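Annex B. Sample input.
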Amino acid sequence: MAGAGPSPLGLAIRDRLPVWVQLRCGLEPKTLAALAVVLVAAAVFAAQHFWVGRPQAVRAPELVQHGSAQPQSDSGPAAGPADEPSPSPGLPPVGPQQAAPIVVDVSGKVRRPGVLELPAGSRVADALEAAGGVKPGTDLSGLNRARVLSDGEQVVVGGPAPPAPGGAGAGTATGAATGPISLNSATVEQLETLPGVGPVLAQHIIDHRMQNGGFRSIDELRDVNGIGDRRFEDLRNLVRP
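Annex B, continued. Sample output.
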């Protein structure tokens, strides 16, 4: 048989070839088939090269946090110090409020009599020390130096106790002297142990005694300069002629 004509595939490929290729290679079927194989191989190679060189997404590395949980065993989670919540610092403990100081009046046979401010809970011994101490020769056998003081009270050293508020009787802050003080024989220091009697008033009592030959009754104490009715009522039970 005469040589068969070009196949349909060969004709299709030939029609799609550039003119210069058709001129160079002619229209031989073998040439066209060889050229088709070359083109297909080139296309496969180009496709493979493009696939390999395509950009790929990169996964970011996982962050490892401090104190991450350790792998647990089959026996269950292991409790450790890392699993316990740390205690909050909280507020510092608040201590008890400090009590206000007290004020007492120390008079009598002390070196520095007067009104003193002492810490709360102070005792009679603390008041005597704050007043400069007791004068030499003073008998303290009747004074409870261990007693706790209260605000506003009077401590009389070496003399009769001051009257309690409302005239209820003698107070507990007593000195060593027992019984009323004699107006005719008392010294200035002894008279100063009386409530409301200072150095000036004590000297007025001594002067009145010397000018009038002594006291014949307690009522004559009203005639002393500086002693009124109220002060006389405070002193009448603490003195005698």
